[in-house]
């Protein structure tokens, strides 16, 4: 996977690519991150990449010419790849979008700044416009870092243990050991515990210490549904839940209305 990042702050990424998953993936040759300074594609001695918005208003807007030149330079070898504009106006980034991008061998990421980017970039240069959430950042660099990390996690071998990505929140497991059904896709992860088995008077659920894999699987499945219902109920509206999942969910809802009722 090659990430071409177009930004006015290439040094922003020096710490991000020097640690953790992205560092390991780059060292292993699974990922290549190419940083491109947008100012290198300006056409004046001041390296100007922004200007005042037509129609008035505060702030500055990225000019289209430097961005078009930057992407055209990346395509000089005839390569074809998605061009993603990081923007608050884009479609919401999600695990399914990350999987979509992970199937590409190369991605170009345009990091917006200031009051925005000339709309002709979104209409005629970018093939996609992505937002990482319903809030506003000062620029697209953080969003680009989030996207690269999420996509890199899905590259085979990048994590070392492929089961880690399969059990993440929002992950879609392809199979399940022992013939049991996996947790519903696009939902939150189940709670995790480690040693010590008791801390501060709080004990790890006994089922996790039982060694009974089927009971553990059922417990985790229930907690996935319970946690999602309590914290992100909108995810349940589109998740492809089976009859067993729906029965568990109804039990969870009934238990919430009867606090004294024991949870299985």
Overview of the structural elements:
- With 264 residues, the protein is α/β, with parallel strands linked by helices.
- The chain has 2 domains: 2-152, SPOUT methyltransferase, trefoil knot domain (Alpha/beta knot); 173-257, Trp Operon Repressor, Chain A.
- It is 32% helix and 15% strand.
- It is built from 8 helices and 9 strands.
- It has helices spanning 20-27, 64-74, 95-102, 119-124, 141-152, 162-166, 213-231, 243-257, and strands at 2-7, 32-37, 50-51, 61-62, 83-92, 106-111, 128-131, 198-199, 202-203.
- The strands form 3 sheets. Strands 2-1-6-5-7 form a 5-stranded parallel sheet, sandwiched between helices. It has a two-stranded antiparallel sheet with strand order 3-4. Strands 8-9 form a two-stranded antiparallel sheet.
- Strand 5 (83-92), helix 3 (95-102) and strand 6 (106-111) form a beta-alpha-beta unit.
- Helix 7 crosses helix 8.
- The longest helix has 19 residues, at 213-231.
- It is elongated and about 70 Å long.
Number of domains: 2
SS summary, helix count:
8
Fraction of residues in H or I helices: 25-40%
Report the structural category. Answer: alpha/beta
Strand order, biggest sheet? 2-1-6-5-7
What's a quick, concise take on this entry?
The protein has about 260 residues and is an alpha/beta fold. It contains 8 helices and 9 strands.
